[in-house]
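[step 3/7] fold_predict: job queued, chain A
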Amino acid sequence: MEKFRAFLKRKDIEISARRYGIDALGAMAQGLFCSLLIGTIVKTLGQQAGIPFLVDVGNFASAMSGAAMAIAIGFALKAPPLVLFSLATVGYAANALGSTTLSGEAGAGGPLAVLFIAVIAAEAGKLVSKETKVDILVTPLVTILVGVALSAWWAPAIGTAASAVGDFVKWATVLQPFWMGILVSVVIGIALTLPISSAAICAAIGLTGLAGGAAVAGCCANMVGFAILSFRENRWSGLVSQGLGTSMLQMGNIVRNPRIWIPAILTSAITGPLATCVFHLEMNGDAVSSGMGTCGLVGQIGVYTGWVNDVASGAKAAITPMDWVGLILISFVLPAVLCWFFGLICRKLGWIKEGDLKLEG
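[step 4/7] structure written:
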């Protein structure tokens, strides 16, 4: 047993919650941001500005999300070069197969599948790395075969499980607007911060209309909320990376101290029903925008696109000042104020301590 432990230490394989639940998760969030989220932002800008080149760039970036996430995870696990480069194939396979369910329908479990499978494939590759004279053959083969085999075996089931979350959200949309607003806002806001693609969930179930507006509210509550809540620790770089990027960057900190999530969740529970019952905020643009929040302002651009489409079709007479007031309050003002307020209470209670929200440099 001691020899095996020494072998794992030599291979830098550390089986711990920190390595997998904090380091790998945090890196995966960055990989997701540098591919799917950036791609969606660029594509949206291209579509709105009528620039086909930007649309193509966005499509290419989004298509590489699985590979980008897996490579980021391998980097966090300190994988040697041959393992790291081989993870591109593993990530692509896991993301593609995780984006379908066991019945072959569209699913939303790609990022979650990549997380589990890339970790195992990376550690398997590290085990054999530089152990043979034909390392250039053995290491990539083991990494890719383990990763793709697990993708074929597990990823569709993970996709099915993730889609079950989407089914729950869809069920919530048939409830009365008040309760629907709370449920959808909280669930999609949580999904945005977890290693589950909230954008993919919204796209898979066609989450638009009032439910889409509630989803936007929940995403903004997490993104803008965490950006303001952690400003004292992360300053302007954190404000931009979370407020215009993704609150998933806080996932590692949430694993350490789940109570830092309380302010954002409470905020989403308030802004969701306000969006549905008071401002009647609807997402009638692309469903994927419902799960983007303030990431590159894609959620807000989606709402605006819906307004334009509704005016053009005659479903809406005009874009009113109240529309803009509701969008700005739900997207920016209320998440900032409410999350700061709830965060202040949590800090007073000792639930959130100095440094709990600090992002890794």
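[step 5/7] annotate
The chain is about 75% helix and 0% strand.
The longest helix spans residues 135-172.
exit 0
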